[in-house]
């Protein structure tokens, strides 16, 4: 691994620790702590579902995150977005696998903790993520990658994976790279 690749990998993982620490650890636990006020808990059987979902969602998130680094030559951090539109792995089936993985982690935590508060948090996080993706991220990706992104967006669903993969794994350089434009967490540049 070259020195610049190592620096990129360390920077990306530092960002991931921050995001995971805040959005997928601290905030769900804070929401779960509110359950003491209501005295309610989700059914015990749902903890098993959470136990199965957590490693699957974690693997989806991390493999998608790794493609940002390895093939996109960037991070999920807005100040260092991927330099290439990556359409490999899970990105061939759904545009936002990293977000789906992260939202799956939040849901799995709620189920494992049997926490109505953490479940409400997961739902609110999902809604906020959808708004961010549709209002901020997708327009930025279209500006950054132009027609390549428009073709990809027409062919690959945003949230529900397709049964048919996007043709071959492609890596396309940004056609109109704009320094500082955010592609935070996006599944294909994700």
How much is the average pLDDT? 86
Tell me the fraction of residues in β-strands, as a range. Answer: under 5%
- Named CATH topology: Four Helix Bundle (Hemerythrin (Met), subunit A)
Q: State the strand order across the main sheet.
A: 1-2
Low-confidence stretches: 174-190
Provide a count of the helices.
Answer: 6
Care to count the β-strands?
A: 2
Q: Terminal Cα separation, in Å?
A: 22 Å
* SSE class: mainly alpha
- Please report the first level of CATH classification, the CATH class: Mainly Alpha
Radius of gyration: 17 Å
Number of domains: 1
Order of helices and strands: HHHEHHHE
User: What sort of overall outline do the alpha carbons produce when their principal axes are compared?
Assistant: globular
Largest sheet: 2 strands, antiparallel
Just name the CATH architecture.
Answer: Up-down Bundle
- The percent of residues in helical segments reads 55-70%
Briefly characterize the structure.
With 190 residues, the protein is mainly alpha-helical. The protein is built from six helices and two strands; from the N terminus they run αααβαααβ.
Describe it for me?
The chain is mainly alpha-helical and 190 residues long. The protein has one domain: Four Helix Bundle (Hemerythrin (Met), subunit A). It is built from 6 helices and 2 strands. The protein has a two-stranded antiparallel sheet with strand order 1-2. α1 (3-33) packs parallel to α4 and α4 runs antiparallel to α5. The model is unreliable at 174-190 (pLDDT under 50).
